[in-house]
Amino acid sequence: MPEKLSFKDKVVIITGAGGGLGRVYALEFAKRGAKVVVNDLGGSLKGEGHNARAADVVVNEIKQGFKNGDAVANYDSVTDGAENIVQTALRAFGQVDVVVNNAGILRDASFGKMTPQAFQSVLDVHLNGAYKLTKAAWPHMKQRKFGRIINTCSPAGLYGNFGQANYSAAKLALVGFSETLAKEGFKYNICVNCIVPLARSRMTEKIIPPHILKQLAPEKIAPLVLYLTHESVNVTNSIFELAAGFYAQVRWERSSGQIFKPDPKTLTPEALLKEWGHIVEFKDKSFQKVEHPVQLADYNMLITKARQL
Ligand code: NAD
């Protein structure tokens, strides 16, 4: 592992890099020698309108601030311009090494009041946008046997949050998407991870109290994005939570559970009622452990366990 993580000769696409977290990632990558495609539609928080200024400002910051790095702007929406975002990277720099799916919007409303358009538009940007860009970059990564992909999830995706059924659905979908791509990308040295950040940006500035916002500089998120996308790091298939300088990994956990005899006379809702405490027990039992599944085979183990009776 090198002492300093350099991104010299690496080409990084960051969506939504005209502001907030994406801008900080772009500056950090460029500082370490990367060539960065600064994609941003430049719309409102709800995803309305567009403006080239957001991406242009960040490209100028890079060009004026970091002589080792380079940058090019792209103003496409991830919803319908993904192919062109990748072409921008190929035209300007000849390759794609890293994709950071970061672009995002919010259309919050309690579920009863959420319009179908509000639901769909949030899925379109976060989930379908990440899918389309990754799909366009994937063959280039596969061909060169190198790729690093970061998908941006959210606590609302992992745990749910009032008023964000659309956003939660999109963000948790990105976890499943990432876990599958991590498996498919493994033999091509394509690593795929999810980050679950909390940071100060226009997304959070009106909902988090100012004294907490002060601790949530987006600069405290960027180090993990750079670490996970470096060529010397092959961490994959993982989810990380990070905020205010705290970094941790999140994983699935299966309770130690309960095995029932597959007899319709005894395997009844009433039997579940009686044994419920054992089904949802998260302590190891003498014959069965709490487990942390990471692949389908770990699920299929359930059948093996049931056969034990
Ligand atoms: P932000 O609004 O500052 O940045 C999002 C950027 O995406 C904006 O610059 C916007 O113009 C751009 N964008 C929106 N739609 C686009 C589209 N269709 N095509 C291209 N660009 C588009 O917000 P942020 O807080 O920096 O959020 C970055 C990512 O992090 C988002 O995916 C967000 O959901 C996620 N996230 C943020 C937090 C947080 O605490 N800030 C928490 C969890 C997840």
Please give a structural write-up.
This protein is an alpha/beta fold and 309 residues long. 41% of the residues lie in helices and 14% in strands. The protein contains ten helices and eight strands. It has an eight-stranded mixed beta sheet, with helices on both faces. Strand 2, helix 2 and strand 3 form a beta-alpha-beta unit. Helix 1 crosses helix 8 and helix 4 runs parallel beside helix 6. The chain is globular, with a radius of gyration of 22 Å. The protein starts with 10 loop residues before the first strand and ends with a helix. The model has no long low-confidence stretch (mean pLDDT 96). The chain binds nicotinamide-adenine-dinucleotide. Nicotinamide-adenine-dinucleotide (NAD) binds next to helix 1, helix 4 and strand 6.
